[in-house]
Design a protein that fits this description.
This protein is mainly alpha-helical. Helix content is 61%, strand content 0%. It is built from eight helices and no strands. Helix 1 packs across helix 2 (17-24), helix 4 (48-54) packs across helix 5 and helix 6 (74-93) packs across helix 7. 19% of the residues are buried.
């Protein structure tokens, strides 16, 4: 939720110069614990530069610290995290892909389906059809 508030403030500052100068007086975003921040905000569809900014880091510092903390790149981690969370939700709540793709940061169902199939070896629609489901972290 905090990221949505920050996004709203950012949009307001783009449209109102007086508000922008007021917000900028408070300085940059404070630096947050990277692991905690990403676990709370991974589902938001935002460019890496926004994840970096809202976590209180420059993009290069964000990438460097991310690799140290998670052992992988931000893009790979975000994709794996989003797909695993979507898989879990579809399986536990018997939801269709059309009900979850947007919630986990995918702009289109087609993109979600391609990424899902690449990771799990079957389309997300198969989860609702088949009794025997692939294991979540078999990924390729």
């Amino acid at each position: 939720m905090w990221m949505k508030v920050q996004e709203a403030i950012h949009i307001l500052t783009l449209t109102d110069k007086e508000l922008s100068s007021f917000v900028l007086r408070f300085g940059a975003y404070p630096q947050k614990d990277l692991r905690e921040y990403m676990e709370q905000n991974y589902m938001f569809n935002a460019p890496l530069c926004k994840f970096a900014e809202y976590s209180g880091r420059s993009l290069s510092t964000f990438r460097r610290e991310f690799l140290q903390v998670f052992g992988t790149t931000p893009a790979k981690w975000l994709m794996d995290k989003r797909l695993s969370a979507a898989y879990r939700k579809m399986r536990e709540e018997c939801l269709k892909p059309s009900a979850v793709y947007w919630e986990f940061g995918f702009e289109t169902q087609a993109h979600f389906s391609r990424c899902f199939k690449q990771k799990y070896g079957c389309s997300p629609g198969k989860l609702t059809e088949a009794r025997e489901m692939p294991q979540p972290d078999r990924g390729r």
